[in-house]
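User: Fold both of these, please.

Assistant: Here is the first one.
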Amino acid sequence: MTVKVKETAVKETAKWEKGDLSFNLVTGFIFMLFTLICVYPFYYLLICTISDRQLVDFGRVILYPIGINFRNYVEIFKVQNLGNAAFISTIRTIFGTAANVLFTSYLAYFFTKQNMWGRKFWYRSVVITMYFSAGLIPEYLNNRMLGLTNSFWVYIIPQLISVYNLVLVKTSIESMPPDLEESAFLDGAGYLSRFFRIVLPLQGPILATVALFTAVRHWNDFFTTKLYITNTNLYTLQYLLYELLQQIKAAAEQISSEDPFARITPTGIRLTLTAIVTIPIMVVYPFIQRFYVKGIMIGAVKG
């Protein structure tokens, strides 16, 4: 009897193992397919920028580059003001992200304090701005009265606080054991000391997630430049891309060489500039990705 039970158990285990193997194979195939679907547009973008322009225009480049050359990148760097625009975008992204993470997390920290005067009222007043805003015209007039037009600070100051990120950071801080701060308080540490020495170092995953959100928003934004900036020295890379895409034929003539076979096409400009503005943020993402899921889960679920 015991032998039959064991044989039955072995058969059932073998069936489950075969079922698990089949499930894993099917799941792995589906995820690989989705991965290819997500990766291929970026791969296609890159191979088109280094392929022969005529073959790209005729749709001959699909799976691998043909007629490899870097003429598109050489010629695109002849665009006027491109280097300065890249510098402005980089500085804006770095300082804007750092300032947003610092101010947002600091305000979120104070909203976790039960003894904050009018805490519920101020927190609700901040959160309601996620759903209602004054509108584009009042916002523009307000920034103009503050003297932010044609100023680099228009990229930084209006975006110091992100309400959505504030909610994530606040929830993450509330999940910390209160004993950590209480012990520091008994040792005489004030709010600033507790924030920078205890709270901030323990919020690595959520701060990395917030930094990623903010950096992508700063890097991709062109509308702020369109609204507030007329000084070409303050143009961002994304706004320069927007301007070139609006005047694509004139841009192609501007940066093309005298050799008609060496000229890049409007399609080449689109693809190459898109690659230039996309690659930097893609390079940053893998370094933050390991914090991303953890940070979102910590910030989204209280306790």
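And the second sequence with its predicted structure:
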Amino acid sequence: MQAALITGAGAVELRDFPDPTPAEGGVVVDIAFCGICGTDIHAFQSGQPYNPAICGHEWCGTISAVGGGVSSLHEGDRVVVAVAPACGRCAACLAGQADRCFTSFASATGRDRMAPPHGGFAPRIAVSADRVVPTDPGLDDEQAAQVEPLTVAFHGVRHSRLRLGDTAVIQGAGPIGLGTMQWVRAGGAGTVVVIEPNEARRELALELGAHHVVEPGAPADSLVRELTHGLGADVVYECVGRPFAIQAAVDLARRGGSMCLIGLADSDASIVPATWLVKEITVTSSLAYFREEFEMAMGMIADGRVRVEPMHSCTVGLDGLADALADLGSGRSEQTKVLVNPNWRS
């Protein structure tokens, strides 16, 4: 079996692995699709060491083998990749902080004891049974492959200070930004503004429910001032994942407003502390998700409150992964969400 790994700057290798078998307490999943995440793109561009277990971590598929000790899952079950539940035994759990469970966090970052030697850019993967959640029957495979990133956005919005009627600004209309925008709408924001340089993505944001779209820079500053009568946004969601965007998000917020950091920048950011202080900005940040949020997110995708189908713009095979990563990282891509089908060649 071959799996694709990002091995350096601009480098993707197809490496041979033995067909996986389920460990005690584990399952093997035949992968239907695996999405390309922003962290995959950053790793491809930077060449910094990248944990192979998370090289492709947005997958869905069907269980093809079940290890001993697993009774809640069966061969033929459709599943999406998730995060292990709180263990109840680590220091965080014993301190009453199960939402910060060390074991659950290790599984989210591909450092759990059963972490595989490759990620979801492969036809099959062996993982702990705790790492998968049954797919909502209302979702097809292409929708299910987008559950993981949509749950990232769901967690960020759920963790933020959004209130009914708020003016919310989302920086970036990539998959995470578009997901965040839809959760913000579902959460009751009164006015939703998406800031995005790419015209096609701005149009997609409007299709998915944004009230206003605008280019970054002076046009965005002017629009937010106009919509808020000079006050600034109640909450700004940073979904670009670039260092410059962090201060830009705070600049758009009102005094007493908040900024939610979802995009993961891969280098240090320069900020203006006086602005943060004078505005008394509240900052929330969000990484990954909680176990229970997967079923919440799937249910709202299945019932149509959040739409993922328009975001899926392209599917490639394993042999098309390198070109897709290069295109997505170019800043000129016409793609939004690219899925990889590891079972065919593009």
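The first strand starts at residue 2 and ends at 8.
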